[in-house]
Amino acid sequence: MSDARLESLRALLPELRLLVEPADLEHYGRDWTRRWTPAPMAVALPASVEDVQAIVCWANAKGVGIVPSGGRTGLSGGAVAANGELVLSLERMHKVLAFDAVDRTLTVQAGIPLQRVQETAREHGLQYPVDFASRGSCSIGGNIATNAGGIRVVRYGNTREWVAGVKLVTGSGELMELGRGLVKDSSGYDLRHLAIASEGTLGIIVEATLKLTDPPSPSNVMLLALPSFEALMQVFAAFRARLQLQAFEFLTDVALKHVLAHGEPPPFEQAHPYYVVTEFASDEASEAEVLAAFGQCLEQGLVSDGVISASDAQAAQLWRLREAITESLARYVPYKNDVSVRISAMPAFLAETQALLGREYPQLEVVWFGHIGDGNLHINILKPDAMAQDAFVADCERVTKLLAQVLEAHGGSISAEHGIGLVKKPYLSCTRSAAEIAAMRGIKAALDPNGIMNPGKLFDA
Ligand code: 2HG
Ligand code: ZN
């Protein structure tokens, strides 16, 4: 540790855990994107808000960039430190600080994993309803910094809906308490919402007060097989009209093929082109309603088969078919797109993009899946064995450009729930106007005047 800047940090905070071993730099310097070579100067693991503030002040004085770091499960390169930045990991700040039964809120340190938030809510007879497959590894601070969505947005909305307050150490080292758990507050700009989805570019989220809600009612999971993607939104409408949907997720036969190759048992004897995993509140009425919805769709040729869970274990098994997609593709290091359009625009968007990719890039294997009930598609592109990595990335970037044009035409977004980070930075201007980006830059300059917070993410300095 010969760097004089690090020596000065050590002198400033002698108790601070500071990691400099190559294995630690590698571990903490990357997220799940695996595209950049990690090269942070060091990894700091503060234990208190005061330490975080002191580190930010030091970074301003020394001109060091800070990459805030949660569970690093992100897929857009938002937590990558490839340019000598200091990684500031919230890993040691993982406590539950308070539960308030009257407010129905849980106040936590930002490094707590999502799963522990969900468990703690359950222990109090309540629910924190945001959920997704990386629940055990991701942290609540990262969820807020990307406004993470997940599998139950159709019923409960994105992370943004569940944040009653945020404590933010801004890029200039100020501690701001935003939102403060108030249900109503119309006293000017709501800066809490700027912290949400800011991807660590404005400051470091150190604590959050989360809203909780009634525990979930019993639910059922159904897997539907569909003959065509035109049927998708009609099936969605038919099921939504009769049932209280909690999830409506879609995958193609190609996605299922990878999940089955990964070890999951096949759900049907025969393969089908498209599948939907849907979860809905179950009560006495829902049994008849689900049969009616299914019968109606069958009659209209919108579904070809279906299986409904008869136990919690079967429900979990059906969910695995959707949730295991990302891990089943991980060994290919796919190029990922995470896009959204209005739900009503989804059929046209999907048809157009599928035709475009099939026509222009028939050599690429494209895996489609996602939160179709929210208008959110995940498009994973796999590298053919024979193709060089550079050529693959170049092709994928061309694909993303084409995709961005289609998205622009449909008024969509280039990042639905994964953030912009490094991966989508070149395409931000396709779906956000020049005036919007200028306003974002102005906000960054106000909260992070020296540009030390997550430099190079979202947009260039
Ligand atoms: C999901 O919905 C995640 O499973 C990951 O957002 C999506 O791997 C992906 O592209
Ligand atoms: Zn997703």
Automatic annotation (TrEMBL):
Keyword Flavoprotein: yes
UniProt KW keywords: FAD, Flavoprotein, Oxidoreductase
Molecular function as annotated in GO: FAD binding; oxidoreductase activity
InterPro entries: FAD-bd_oxidored_4_C, FAD-bd_PCMH, FAD-bd_PCMH-like_sf, FAD-bd_PCMH_sub2, FAD-linked_Oxase-like_C, FAD-oxidored/transferase_4, Oxid_FAD_bind_N, Vanillyl_alc_oxidase_C-sub2
Domain FAD-binding PCMH-type residue range list: 36-215
SUPFAM superfamilies, alphabetized: FAD-binding/transporter-associated domain-like (SSF56176), FAD-linked oxidases, C-terminal domain (SSF55103)
Biological process per Gene Ontology, one example term: respiratory electron transport chain
Cofactor: FAD
Family, similarity comment: Belongs to the FAD-binding oxidoreductase/transferase type 4 family.
Name the record gives this protein: FAD-binding oxidoreductase
